[in-house]
């Protein structure tokens, strides 16, 4: 089955940067508590080194854009952690949503809010784990096949 149509253009993505009911988006680079980050990554099932708090804290500290989704009580519902120059390219490295909020538009909203912040001249690249590979095209994201990798040792 072919992928749905691609959602093209900054304006189309920026229009989707609306948090679902009961959620607020915020930029929290340099402010997000690493323990909160670890908890939502662990709960979401995203494969990251959650057993190594120092490494997780370093990952968070090195991010240039951290967009969070919080519920009305201030609890962390999701995070989009990115590395970007805000001018040409952005690598959305971690997108994780607490299971209680999955399927309610939080993930899509975090991607759209990230793109809105980046602006029209900046592309957003996301590398997916195998399981969500079928989810991103449903949002209108374009598949890419041109890429190369040098893997980490651990």
From TrEMBL:
The record's listing under PANTHER family reads: FAMILY N-ACETYLTRANSFERASE, PUTATIVE (AFU_ORTHOLOGUE AFUA_6G03350)-RELATED (PTHR43233:SF1)
InterPro entries attached to this UniProt entry: Acetyltransferase_Butenolide, Acyl_CoA_acyltransferase, GNAT_dom
Tell me which Pfam families the record gives: Acetyltransf_7
| Protein's name according to its UniProt entry | GNAT family N-acetyltransferase
Please name the source species. Answer: Roseicella frigidaeris
Q: Would I find Transferase among this entry's keywords?
A: yes
Q: Which GO terms describe its molecular function?
A: acyltransferase activity, transferring groups other than amino-acyl groups
Where is the N-acetyltransferase domain positioned along the sequence? Answer: 66-140
Any idea which UniProt keywords this protein has? Transferase
């Amino acid at each position: 089955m072919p992928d749905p149509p691609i959602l093209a253009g900054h304006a189309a993505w920026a229009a989707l940067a609306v948090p679902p009911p009961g959620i607020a988006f915020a930029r929290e680079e340099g402010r997000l508590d690493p323990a909160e980050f670890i908890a939502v990554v662990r709960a979401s099932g995203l494969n990251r080194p959650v057993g190594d708090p120092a490494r997780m804290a370093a990952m968070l500290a090195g991010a240039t854009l951290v967009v969070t989704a919080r519920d009305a009580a201030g609890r962390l519902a999701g995070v989009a952690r990115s590395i970007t120059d805000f001018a040409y390219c952005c690598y959305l490295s971690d997108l994780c949503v607490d299971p209680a909020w999955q399927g309610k538009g939080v993930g899509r909203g975090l991607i759209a809010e990230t793109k809105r912040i980046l602006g029209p001249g900046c592309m957003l690249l996301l590398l997916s784990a195998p399981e969500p590979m079928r989810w991103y095209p449903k949002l209108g994201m374009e598949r890419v096949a041109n890429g190369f990798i040098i893997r980490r040792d651990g």
